[in-house]
């Protein structure tokens, strides 16, 4: 380690050195005592060991969750009563946002200001589903004089929640909020690269009054703990966020049990910039769209398609702005791109940068930034003139790397936009209202932002098409996923 890294590294006070499972209201180690190393991305030194869960630990956690579902009060509480607990959870998360952000930033390498935003979003997710569940109305259908039919919505049971390492705490809240609001009990398997913030849920939930056994946490590797959760016969639901390839494996493993599956998967989202767009706004937004959250963002606009008449100007201005994006230590409030999560992921991103050098024209970045000899730091990297068959155009890099490609007309823009296996998000920049809506209709993406950054409205569907996902969450769609809808028919 260099002096720079030593002096710049910020270690949060009271950092735990062991990260354990939380099962039936108790912190416990793995049944076989196995652990895995948890690294800090600034130095890549092990700062803690995580309990490496296996089938025995998942069995224990599922049994506790099942008991809490069958015998406990949680599924039987009135929505208002569950809502109160969820609001309390949101209050506690909000009141600890600085500490949460500090730990998340340390564990994941995310810039501290952005980690703080994610902690607040986590609170908002709980608050949103707390409100939604009390506003929930179920359908009733009348056949005059003959029949009344109504929908009886019921929690399903033990929900298995499997989450990735990018914005871990926030993404966990996106599943925990609706799963708990609807009266299910849960087993959470967080990503092994970033287990720190997930371990904080236990204390928060206890303080908020969530009954014992409702929330269970098993750490460990995907192929061990995650696999056992997917294959557990008493877990009827799996909500998964992660890579498309992992989604395929989970889909196959869940098939014999006919489980309910919700999958939020990878992306290679296009940002289409037409010549008539407000270029200042488009450049700012597309810079933010791929370099915020270290580029480790499922909805990153990682392919920018630019109309040829403004292409040269766009590329020159974009490259200049990318060079001004500030890479720094994650805890520094001035940092805009921190350290990538893990050396394995760093190697993947850097290998794509090397591939990109043979596929496109490097106009910004391209390697390790000066002054950061250690840790997972990567310069914001921009490739121009990238052809559609390039790997950096087709494959998800999940880092601060963007491919820019010119197009000549609307039809070509759409062909290029749709020319990947993914279909998560799309961004369109134009001042022509008709064109904006027409492109939105034809682009293969679960979510489209017109002249806008990626700003979420929690009531809208969140999810992708093609290899980017299966099903939608968000608003009542989350409630639908986590409940059975029983039809009750009454003859008059
Ligand atoms: P990943 O697929 O490697 O891992 C995700 C989770 O699945 C981890 O907890 C992992 O341990 C677990 N897992 C791995 N193999 C498993 C198996 N065989 N059975 C059960 N569980 C298993 O993904 P990642 O690298 O942690 O996350 C990055 C990916 O997530 C990117 O592709 C990104 O686009 C995607 N993502 C999607 C969204 C979305 O909403 N669409 C949001 C965030 C991230």
Describe the model.
The chain is of the alpha/beta class. It has helices spanning 3-8, 55-70, 79-95, 97-108, 112-135, 168-181, 200-208, 222-230, 244-254, 279-291, 308-324, 343-359, 391-394, 410-418, 433-442, 476-481, and strands at 18-19, 21-23, 26-28, 35-40, 45-51, 140-143, 147-155, 158-162, 185-189, 215-217, 237-241, 260-264, 270-273, 303-307, 361-364, 381-384, 401-407, 425-429, 447-450, 469-470, 483-491. The strands form 5 sheets. It has a 7-stranded mixed beta sheet, with helices on both faces. The longest helix has 24 residues, at 112-135. It starts with a helix and ends with a strand. Bound molecules: nicotinamide-adenine-dinucleotide (NAD). Nicotinamide-adenine-dinucleotide (NAD) binds at residues 162-166, 171, 189, 191-192, 221-223, 226-227, 230, 241-243, 246, 249-250, 264-267, 298, 396, 398, 424, 464, 469. Pfam families: Aldedh. This is 5-carboxymethyl-2-hydroxymuconate semialdehyde dehydrogenase. InterPro entries: Ald_DH/histidinol_DH, Ald_DH_C, Ald_DH_CS_CYS, Ald_DH_CS_GLU, Ald_DH_N, Aldehyde_DH_dom, DH_HpaE.
């Amino acid at each position: 380690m260099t002096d720079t890294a030593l002096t710049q590294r910020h270690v949060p006070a009271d950092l735990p050195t062991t990260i354990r499972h939380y099962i039936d209201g108790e912190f416990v180690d793995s049944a076989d005592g196995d652990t895995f190393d948890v690294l800090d991305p600034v130095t890549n030194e092990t700062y803690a060991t995580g309990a490496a869960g296996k089938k025995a630990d998942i069995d224990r956690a599922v049994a506790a969750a099942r008991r809490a579902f069958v015998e406990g009060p949680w599924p039987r509480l009135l929505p208002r009563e569950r809502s109160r607990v969820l609001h309390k959870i949101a209050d506690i998360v909000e009141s600890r946002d600085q500490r949460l952000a500090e730990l998340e930033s340390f564990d994941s390498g995310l810039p501290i200001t952005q980690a703080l935003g994610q902690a607040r979003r986590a609170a908002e997710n709980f608050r949103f589903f707390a409100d939604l569940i009390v506003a929930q109305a179920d359908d009733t259908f009348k056949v005059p004089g003959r029949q009344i039919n109504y929908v009886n919505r019921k929690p399903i049971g033990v929900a298995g929640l499997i989450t990735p390492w990018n914005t871990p705490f926030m993404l966990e809240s996106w599943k925990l909020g609706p799963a708990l609001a609807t009266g299910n009990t849960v087993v959470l398997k967080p990503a092994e690269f970033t287990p720190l913030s997930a371990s904080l849920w236990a204390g928060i939930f206890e303080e908020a009054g969530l009954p014992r056994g409702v929330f269970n946490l098993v750490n460990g590797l995907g192929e061990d703990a995650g696999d056992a959760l997917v294959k557990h016969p008493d877990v009827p639901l799996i909500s998964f966020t992660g890579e498309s390839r992992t989604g395929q494996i989970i889909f196959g493993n869940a098939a014999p049990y006919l489980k309910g599956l919700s999958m939020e998967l990878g992306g290679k989202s296009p940002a289409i910039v037409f010549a008539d767009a407000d270029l200042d706004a488009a450049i700012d937004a597309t810079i933010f769209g791929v370099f915020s959250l270290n580029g480790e963002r499922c909805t990153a606009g990682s392919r920018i398609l630019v109309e040829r008449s403004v292409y040269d100007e766009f590329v020159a201005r974009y490259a200049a702005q990318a060079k001004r994006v500030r890479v720094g230590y994650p805890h520094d409030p001035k940092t805009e791109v921190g350290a990538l999560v893990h050396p394995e992921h760093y190697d993947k991103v850097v290998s794509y940068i090397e591939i990109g050098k043979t596929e496109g024209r490097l106009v910004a970045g391209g390697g390790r930034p000066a002054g950061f000899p250690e840790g997972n730091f990567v310069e914001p990297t921009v490739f121009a003139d990238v052809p559609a068959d390039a790997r950096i155009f087709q494959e998800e890099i999940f880092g601060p790397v963007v491919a820019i490609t010119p197009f000549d007309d609307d039809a070509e823009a759409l062909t290029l936009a749709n020319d990947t296996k993914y279909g998560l998000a799309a961004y369109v920049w134009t001042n022509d209202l008709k064109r904006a809506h027409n492109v939105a209709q034809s682009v293969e993406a679960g979510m489209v932002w017109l002249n806008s950054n990626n700003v979420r409205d929690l009531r809208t569907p969140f999810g992708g098409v093609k290899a980017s996902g299966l099903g939608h969450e968000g608003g009542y769609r989350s409630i639908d996923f986590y409940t059975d809808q029983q039809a009750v028919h009454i003859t008059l």
